[in-house]
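<purpose> Linking amino acid order to shape
<body> The protein record starts here
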Amino acid sequence: MSDDFKRVEAHTCPMSTCAVPPGSPCHTGRGKVAVQYHTARFRLVPQLAKVLNVPTPAVRKPGSAWTELPRPVDTGAEPVGHVRLGYRRAFTARQSLDAQFDAMAESEVNRVFADKISARAAKRPELEAAVTLAGEIRSSGVRVTLVVHEHKRLGRGIELAVLAEELKACDVGLAFLTGELQGSHDPSGIVLTVLAAMSGMERGYIRDRTLEGHESARKRGKTIGGAGVVDDAMHSMALHLREQEMSLRGIAARLVITAGGKKGQHPTPRIRHSVEWAPGGVRDVARDWK
């Protein structure tokens, strides 16, 4: 069982209709234990800021009558300790990581992760491992800083912005040993805040450009998405076979695509199928055969 619920229950629920104190699960308007924690509450936990929901564990008996549980003892203690995780990166196999290693040794790094990978590579497994470990350590109450030789080792602008957003969500600091951004940057500081905002803006720009492109294509009469493979004759045959109580898989095996890139293949029923049973008999739901 995940400890996420413990992190959530360390906070008072900010929902005015709930407002339960630390140590207790959220409740519904009818006084029952909610099946999941309110979004406003679990987003107070940096590590959970991006998740869609946090289920209430079985130990809290979701659906039962809500009663306040004992509140956790607040020691008032500050985070204990400080871990510094290093990250080195070479863009080619011939590049040496020695200079970066020496610089990190002088900065008292506890553990070093290293990637030898092209600047064009989308995946950086060692960096991902470093960020994951940093988040896990920070969740235990220990301060964590990711140390990098210089910001260029983290990739292009948007890659750095995405990383900053992840670190900020986990409450992990970032330090550069050299370069324009040299120095230590707090998770709530201006550098990580601006970089994280850039990441969000870029996602918004990409989404807007995609929607604008779709709208422009529609105005020119172009079809968005894959071309349909079901014509009227095939659709009528599918309905007829369904009336004969044939299964959807059986129907798909009887039909053959007659045109397009999938000519000669059988259509595949997906999610909501072309035909299904209804109380009054067969009804036409949607031509969703691909």
